[in-house]
Amino acid sequence: MRYLLVLVALIVVVSCVLILVRSWTSSRPAVPARESPKEILKRRYAAGEIDEDEYLRRMSGLSQDW
User: Fold this and answer.
1) CA angle, residues 36, 32, 55, in degrees to nearest 5
2) Is pTM beyond 0.70 here?
3) In this structure, how many other beta carbons lie within 10 angstroms of the beta carbon of residue 41?
């Protein structure tokens, strides 16, 4: 009887650990995609970090084929 109780307790503990590990791995955020240089410029312009002239100058530089 005592061995059965220990076995049931062990199964419960292992099950809880597995549930926690699965929930932790499934709720982790995915690695964010890297922004392209054009997307960074758009974001910075929208946030007011750079003005329109700077935005257009840098965007034209990115559009050129070197």
Assistant:
1) 30
2) no
3) 20
Token digits for 3? Answer: 């061995």
Which residues neighbour 57 within 8 Å (Cβ) at sequence distance 6 or greater? none
Show me where the domains of the chain are located. 2-63
Q: In this structure, how many other beta carbons lie within 10 angstroms of the beta carbon of residue 38?
A: 12
| Whole-Å CA distances, 33 to 24, 39, 52, 62 | 21, 12, 26, 20
C-alpha–C-alpha distance, residues 61 and 58, integer Å: 5
Instruction: List the pLDDT tens digit at each of the 66 positions of the chain.
Output: 889 999 999 999 999 999 888 887 766 566 667 889 999 999 999 999 999 999 999 999 998 865
